[in-house]
Amino acid sequence: MKILGYSERGIINSLIFSIGEDKQLMREFIKLINIPEIEESEKIITDYTILLEQSFSRFGDSDLVIIIEYEDPKDKKVLFIEGKVKTSQSKKWYLERQFEKFEREEKYTGSSSNLFFQLHLKKLLFDNCALKDFNNGIEEPRYKENRKIGRNEVVLQAVKFVIDCKKAFYIGLIPASEEDIENFGRKTDFDIHFLSWERVYNFCVKEEKLKKVIEIFKFNEGQIF
After folding, report:
1. 12, 93, 96, 123: which could join 175 in a potential S-S bond, CB 3.0 to 4.6 Å?
2. What are the two backbone dihedrals, phi and then psi, of residue 30, each rounded to the nearest 5 degrees?
3. Where are the beta strands (DSSP E) in 128-201?
4. Which of 53, 56, 47 lies closest to 159, judged by CA?
5. Weakest-pLDDT range from 30-39, 187-196, 200-209
6. What is the DSSP string of 25-93?
7. Which of the listed ranges 38-47, 90-99, 187-196 does the model predict with the highest average pLDDT?
8. How many CB atoms lie within 10 A of CB 164?
C-alpha cells in the first residue's frame, strides 16, 4: 500500500511518524537546526512531546511543535517550526523577500502566510501565555485587533504544554539554499533559526528508517525546494 502526502505538511507528517518513538533519531533531526544553546548544553534530554499541525487560535497554526524534556523538568524547551515551500509554479523562494514584506507591512489583517509574521505570532504567544489576563487578549500595536486564544479545549491543552517550557526557539523550515541562509543578514527583534529542506532531504537519504519520507519528497518533486 502506498500512502502519499502533499507539500510541506505531507513531508513533515511523514517525517515525524517515520521517526516514531525513536528518541535518538529525533535527537539527530534536532541537531540539523544547530541551536547552540541546545547543542552545547550538558543537560540530559530525556523525552520529547510532538504537536503536529497544532492550532493556537488567533496566534496561528504551527506546522510542527517539538517540546524537549530534560532530567530537570524546569529546563524544558519548545521549538516552533514553520514550513515553507517553493511551489511548482515558482522558480525560487526568496528569504529576503519574505523579510522585506514582513518589515513593510505595518498591520496584518486576518491570516498571513509570511514566515516571519507566523513566527512572530508564536513569540507573542510564548511571551504572554503565562500571564493571568492572557485569555483577555494580547494587545499588539502592529495588528488591528487583540490576539485571543479562545476556549477550544484542545488548543488550551497545547498551550499548557508551552507554558511549562523555560525557553522557546523559532525555526523556519525553508526552500532556501545553505548559501542563501548563510548570507541572510537581516535581523528581527527575536532570534530565528533556519533549516533548509535540502538538509532534511539529505538527512532522510542516510537513514534507512526514513526511506518513506524520500518517497514523499519525490511525489512532491518541484514543489518543495
Report:
1. 93
2. -65, -35
3. 167-174, 192-196
4. 56
5. 187-196
6. HHHHHHHTT--HHHHT--PPEEEEEEEEEEE-GGG-EEEEEEEEEESSGGG-EEEEEEE----TT-S--
7. 38-47
8. 15
User: Which has the minimum average pLDDT: 107-111, 147-151, 166-170, 175-179?
Assistant: 107-111
HSE (side-chain half, CA atoms, 13 Å) at 196: 14
CA dihedral angle for residue 55, residue 60, residue 63, residue 65, rounded to 10 degrees: -70
Residue holding cell 547543542? 39
Q: Are 147 and 138 in contact (CB under 8 A)?
A: yes
CA distance 9 to 120: 20
Residue 140 has pLDDT above 80, yes or no: no
Say if strands 167-174 and 61-70 run parallel, antiparallel, or are unpaired: unpaired
Q: Please state the rounded mean pLDDT for residues 146-173.
A: 97
First CA to last CA across the chain, in angstroms? Answer: 27
